[in-house]
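hey so u asked for the seq, here:
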Amino acid sequence: MEGGQQTHATWYEPLTNQRTIDAAVAFTLGTPGVTGIATPADTRLLPNLIEAEQHRAEWTPESIDAELSTVPHLEPPFLRHEGRVIPDWLEHIVPG
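ran it, structure tokens below
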């Protein structure tokens, strides 16, 4: 949480806007070869994930891109980034 308060029981800053979660789930489950999705580490977000799965067929690649492009600093959590703290238990799997 770069300089801010931690708002969720996660080591990352999760998406919290339902429309953005919907787009992210639609993108993930629409990716060829992907057969599942990890649930959020904060169980308060699980209902949002379930709701997003129910609406994933409504999303087109263009609408997904449009929605996710509005998220500032959106990047995969398993990459190193200046200012990002990688927990010790993940250190060995996050590329250098």
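The mean pLDDT is 82. The chain has three helices and no strands.
lmk if thats what u needed
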